[in-house]
Every structure is written in C-alpha cells, then in structure tokens.
Amino acid sequence: MTKSGESMLFDDRLATVLRSRAGSDTAARTQYRQLIDLLGTLPVDADVDLGQEGLNRLGELSDALPFLWQAAILRQPGVRLRNPALVNWLADREPQVAAAAMSAASLAGDDWLEIIPHLPVSARGFLRHRADLPASARQMLERLGVGDLVLTDAAPRQAAPEVSPAQEPLEPTTPAPGGGPAEIGALVRRIEAFRRARSDNAPPPPARFSTDSQAVAAGRAITSFEFEADASGMISWASPGIAPMVVGITLGDPEPDAIASVDPVSARNMELRLPVRGGRISFSATPAITGLWLIDASPRFAPLNRAFEGYAGRIRRQADKPEAEAGTEPVDEGSDRMRQVLHELRTPVNAIQGFAEIIQQQLFGPAPNEYRALAASVAVDAARLLAGFDEIERLAKLESRAMTLPAGSSDMRAAVHIILQRLENVLRPRNARISFDVSGGPFVIGIEQTDAQQLVWRVLATLAGSMAPGEEAKLTIHGDGTSLDISAEIPLAMRETADLFDTSGQHRAGSISTGAFGTGFTLRLARAEALAVGGGLRREQDRLVLTLPVLTEAMPDNSDDTFGAHQSART
C-alpha cells in the first residue's frame, strides 16, 4: 500500500525539522512550534517511527524550555492540535501547558470521547471551561465530574491496624430517642477518637512543588520561586512554599516604604508591558525573603481580546558577589533594553514569515501563482529582517559584554585567503586588485574558524565593496609571536569619511552587501568582535588595522607555510 501525497509531504517536513539543530532559545522555540503544528496534524498513514521520533524531540524541547513559554506558544493563533495522542500527551505536562493545550485542542466528537476518560483530573477541569465542546463530550465530563470531585487518599488503603479498646472503631449506632447529654457526649468522644486514629496512620500529603515547601520546612533559605502577578503588579499566585510571604505584594517603582522595589529599567519595561530579563528586585519583609533578588518575567495577554492580564515568571535570589567583583562594570541597560525590543519584534516577523511560507507552499490548499510569488517575496523580506535583528542583537551583546565568542583555534592567514577567493568574482570584472603580503607568524587565534572567517569578511568585503574600477589596494598580515596585524588600504571612496564606525549617517550601498545597515554598522560590529577576543579594529591614516592576539602554540595542521611568504591575489 503506497502512501498518499499528504503523508509523504508530512514525513519530508518532519524529517527536515528533526535534522535541524536547536542551538539557541530562539531556535528551540521555533522548533517547538513547528513540531506542535506537524504532530498536531499527523496524517493517519504517516510513518509511525518518524512520528515517535518527533514526539521524543518535543519532549526534549519541553524539558529545556520554560513551561510559560510553551504555554504561550500553544495559545498563539493558528496552532493546530487535531491529534488526540498529542493532546493527551500535552495534558500530562505542567498545569499551564495542559491548560493551554486544552484551550487550543480542536478534536472531533469521537476523539474527545476516546481521550477524556484518560485525561488527568486537572485537564478535565480545564475542559469544563470550554463552551464549544460537542454535546457528547460535555455529557461525558458531567458523568466523570462526580468522581473528579471525590477526595481520595494519597496512598492505597492499608489493612486496618489493630486498635486498643480506647481506639475501638466507631459503630454506626444511632442515639435512642430521648437520649440525654451523656449519650451525645459519648458519641462525640468516639468520633474524635476515630479521627485521631485515622490521622495518625495517614501518610503526609505530597507537596506540589517539593523544593520550596521542603526548604521552608527544613528552615533552609529559598533560592527561587515562580509567581504570577495581575495587571496592577500585585502577586496573585506563587509557589506553595513561599506563597504566604509574597502573595499580595505589589511590584513597582522604588519607594522608601515599599515592600518590593523593582529597579527603574525593569519597572519601565513593566509599564510598557515588555519582558523583564535579569531585573533587580528588593524585598523588605520577613527575614526569609528580605534582600536582593533577580526577576525574569513575561507579560500575559488574554487569548481572545489580547487584553493585558499581568506577568508570570520566576524570581531567584541574587548570589552574593565576592569583594573582588564589587567594582565590576554594571550591565549596559540600553543594550539590555535593545535586546528585549528585538525579542518583541521577532515574534510578528516570524509569524509573517510562517504564514507567507504556508501560502507559497500551498499547505492549506491551492493558491494563485501571483499570490505565491508575493508570498515568496514577503518570506524573503522577513528573512532579511530577521538577519538584521540577529546582527543588532549580536552587536548589543558584544558591546555590553553579555556575550563572548566561543573558544577555538583557527588560522587567520587561511581565513584571509578564503575570503579573497570569494571576492574574486566580484572585483575581477571591474579590473580591481588586492595584493596580499604575509610576514612573520604565527597566525593562529583562539576563536572558531566560522567566527574568524566572518570577522575577516566584514572587514574585507566592506572595503572591497567601495573600491572603484581599476583601483588596487594592498593587504598585509604580520605576526610578531604574540599578536597579528591585518592591515588594509582604505579605498578612495571611504577616505573622506571622518568616522568609519559611525552608524548614524547615510551610507551608500556598495557592490558587495555586508549587512543591512551600511558600512559603519558592519565595521562597528567587526570592532566589537575583535574587542571580544582581546584585539581591536582601528584606523591609522589611510589604512584599517585589525589586531588580534595569537595562541602561543600554533596548530600542527597550519604550522607549514601553506601559502608562501608572499601571496598576491588579483581579485
């Protein structure tokens, strides 16, 4: 039996997603949404093993992503949850994730009847708030509701222990008519004795969040807790172990008599309903929570009318810094705010790109070719925007020292040679030329090869893109044993620019695109990358000099003089 075209398309798309590597939080959230959409519309004749692999990957992503993010993804418009097995799997996750899944699930009547008896009691409780369920599903929830409301013992009932005469079990007797106070008093005493005997043998109830509850019970300091706040900033829910201490406290601007004071930047973000990442909050209350804490929270919006409902997140205790670190530089609040704005911009752009790809690939049905061409153009523009956002975020992180380049080992002489070969096809038709001279050594630096080539590309492609027809530029690389200098002549068209790193002015587009924001931004990003590894990028009259520290021991593979003492490239 051959597969249908729909299942084959599903298998191809799922296999493509599974081959992708989720190396960052953004990639993990994107892959989580993709797997939800693909597994949520699983065809009947799809590859079972591939579907199980997708479910396993979804489980890995669920363990890595905060459950509040998972719930937000499930509540996004356009989420398709039509697979009963996936809905049943999501119902067993955290309460917020299960609630979002029950709200977004779109199953047929028979599918509801099949999975409702197997859902956890809490998930069935979420379903009872839905008014669009089939009548048969509502009837089954009503029949199961009687059992859901019965409180059961936390452990299986044990055999009745032997009791002393003073604790003999209560007999179902009824006072005789006209019985006096003595009979009633004896009955009350026997009821109390029965309750005491039962409570002594009952196991302690399990804690919902064991970490906080056990910490409080043991007298240990609580290091973190989860919370939810309403639209006014008042904490309405918190982890059980700490809830009595923080519920009712309002998060707001620093004030002399405030119980909880949030730093000005975080307070401003909360006023603008933006995410808060690594904000500082100070509690002045009971000794268990008094002190400095850090807050990570995201705004919550109603799924129907998108009305602001408050914040949800996690508050963790700020670790005490050693005295040696007391003089470290503060976090660049402007860069942190820029990263948060970029995070908010990516969400609608990702949605636009996704829907454009749906139209272009005709995933929901046939579309006219004209619409498909427009959708493809929109998807390309969205990809360019996302690439630009990545560059801005990278610059903000590097300049605020919130990011470092991964350690590695790469030969900068080889990286320069590779980039010159790539530029050859662009400059040869214009009869332009770059001569490349090598002296000294070694040239091995402590970053990965990809980052090294990207750094060289930003510098050389920016200069080459401004070269005039017939112009020749000299490029040299020199090593003195501790550092290396890559020195390039600045093209005539750029020599009149007072500040090559200025990002505010208008820059003409060169023949080679090095970024979406002009030559000034690209060179500024290259300078930030060089500073991140202990080097620098500076202008010396008519030359641009990139300085980088070298490793003390060169790589064996690059110890030979592969390119010779002098390399001239006509590009």
From TrEMBL:
<dbReference type="InterPro" id="IPR003661">
    <property type="entry name" value="HisK_dim/P_dom"/>
</dbReference>
<feature type="region of interest" description="Disordered">
    <location>
        <begin position="157"/>
        <end position="182"/>
    </location>
</feature>
<dbReference type="Pfam" id="PF00512">
    <property type="entry name" value="HisKA"/>
</dbReference>
<dbReference type="GO" id="GO:0000155">
    <property type="term" value="F:phosphorelay sensor kinase activity"/>
</dbReference>
<protein>
    <recommendedName>
        <fullName>histidine kinase</fullName>
        <ecNumber>2.7.13.3</ecNumber>
    </recommendedName>
</protein>
<dbReference type="InterPro" id="IPR036097">
    <property type="entry name" value="HisK_dim/P_sf"/>
</dbReference>
<keyword id="KW-0418">Kinase</keyword>
<keyword id="KW-0808">Transferase</keyword>
<feature type="domain" description="Signal transduction histidine kinase dimerisation/phosphoacceptor">
    <location>
        <begin position="333"/>
        <end position="401"/>
    </location>
</feature>
